Amino acid sequence: MIGKLGPSAGKILKLMEKKDVDGLIEALVQVSKPDYTRLFGRKVAEAITNSLIEIGKPAVKPLIKTLKCEEYDARGYAAEALGKIGKPAVEPLIRALRNRNRYVREYAAKALGKTGDERAVEPLIKTLKDKQSMVREKAAWALGEIGKKKAAPPLIKALNEYPDMQNVIIEALGKIRAAKAVNPLIKALDNEYTPVRRCAAWALGQIGDKRAVEPLFRVISDGKIFLTYPQSRGEEFDKHQRVLNEQVDTILTAAEALGTMGSLTLKPLIQALGADDPSSQDIAEWTLERVRERIREK
Question: Which domain holds residue 263?
Answer without folding.
Answer: 182-298
